[in-house]
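Re: weekly structure request thread

Next one in the queue (232 aa):
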Amino acid sequence: MNESPNFEISSAMMVFAVSLIIAISASVTTYFIMMTGYAESQLLALSEELLHLWDDAELHYELVAEVEASSVSEDGRRKQIIMNKYVFDSLCRIIPLHATIKKFFYQLNEVFKGSIGIGLFLLLLGVICVLLGGLENTYMQLPFGILLVGLDCYIGQRMKDAGVVFEQAVYDCQWENFNSRNMKMVLIILQNAQKIAVVSALDFVEMDYVCLMATMKATYSTYTTFRSSIEN
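Done, posted below.
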């Protein structure tokens, strides 16, 4: 293998194979990161809007009050009507946006869950083989496998955290100041927000930091079992 022309042929085949594998993997991973990042940013933006919803309603009332002067006796009632109307219009816009974002992410996860699950299994198998081969011989391959597993878990954790932030924002939107109609709409948003969107691998593993730690533990346990069996 180290003699010419076998060495040149094997080197060319290795470069071609590695480049092809990395190009496809990197392209798919980059696309998945961009799409999940978009969904996460939209959820965080809606969370900020919910947190400042009542404050924005007060600013809206102040702008309206400058244009339409109202009497002192009607000021309190009129203020509530104007502010709750602003809140109602905002909630009518937030509800379909939130539903669209979650539907988009579910469709994205439906497409990628199979490849994520198969990739996770192959990467774990590769890490075990790398460990069995000895770190002194395979120390350059080990970080690659761990990095890819950690990247999927990091993406899933960020998406899950964004869902939790949105759920907490629904609680903290000062809904106690709303009228009954707006309170019912907040309840609808809360029910949808409690169904946290997660990145899954074949519908049985949630990709998050818990999965990463469990994966590392299972990988090391499998490695020690195989290692002891080989030595015996």
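The beta strands are 200-201, 205-206. The longest helix spans residues 72-132.
Next request, please.
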